Write the structure tokens for this entry.
Amino acid sequence: MKPTARNGKIDLLKFLFSLFVIIYHFNNAVNYPNEIFTKGYIGVEFFFVVSGFLFAKSISKITYQKETILKDSFGFMKRKYLSLFPYHCFFFTATFLYCAIHYTWGIRKSFTQLLLSIPDFLMLRMGGISNLPLLGHEWYISAMLIVMFIFTPIAIRYRRFFLHYLCPVLFVGCIGYLYHQKHNLDFVSQWTGLCMAGVLRAAAEIAFGCICYVGYENKLLDKLPKPVLLILEIGLYAIIISYAARFLGSLNDYAVLFITAPAVLISFTPKASVGFLNNRFISFLGKLSYPIYLSQIFIRQILAPIDFGLGYAFHLCIYVVCVMAVSLICILIVDTFLKLVKKWKANAQKPDTAV
């Protein structure tokens, strides 16, 4: 397989952490002894920090121009939104149809429920106006988009101030506030008076990812030998995964967040790259992580109530396999559709050479 421009380690970790998150949500829907990854929600912290890092990296490529800052900001967010929306739309439609059939809504109620779910359809649930959260777990995507929409023009216009001053202030302020509300990060829908707690969680951790990018840009870890970086990276992720599996009950979410940031920084450091992971298969696993995250509630609603009589491990395996299968179907359908749209646009833009 040919190497890709993507970061293989990050893609593999995205896939793994997406599995931890969906297992955690599955555990909440069933009742078995000895469940695994009962703190799997901590995977969201990895996604936020990585999103912040990549956000800062992307913004650094945009040159500030007073006349075009709004256009550049809107263009950046438009690309981000459109890269996520088609997959979201697939699972929103599937979940809505399942609920309409399962709960026998009928035409009138289905129409009413559809109108109530408009904010969720537009991925604006964390704006605080959600009436029918069909994809409740999608709060992460909604919060990320809202925070990035606010951050983008500031980051373009005042890049150095944003990265070196505002991000540390936002991180410390938001995390401190959340800690005093609750000593873990597993709460998102609480209204803080200004916004939902999940938005503050996103703002803090995306800002933390931006801080990591400053370290990357300044080559903070380049002086360390590669073996040291790799050992440190493996050790940090081992702690995070062990905590997600609830083997380290003496830690808390905030301590793990502080461990996640340096782990992500090492994973992005070129010196710590592992060549054999940079291939198309691992890249595809990274791409698969988003549909996996989206498909979980749709599959969980169907499978969680079924008692197979074969215990937790079997039930969980069936769930994970079905999530993977539906995610693959989603990618196949959505990507085929996007290719057809792209081809149609290309043909529409061709000049008519007919005489």
User: Anything to note?
Assistant: The first helix runs from residue 8 to 29.
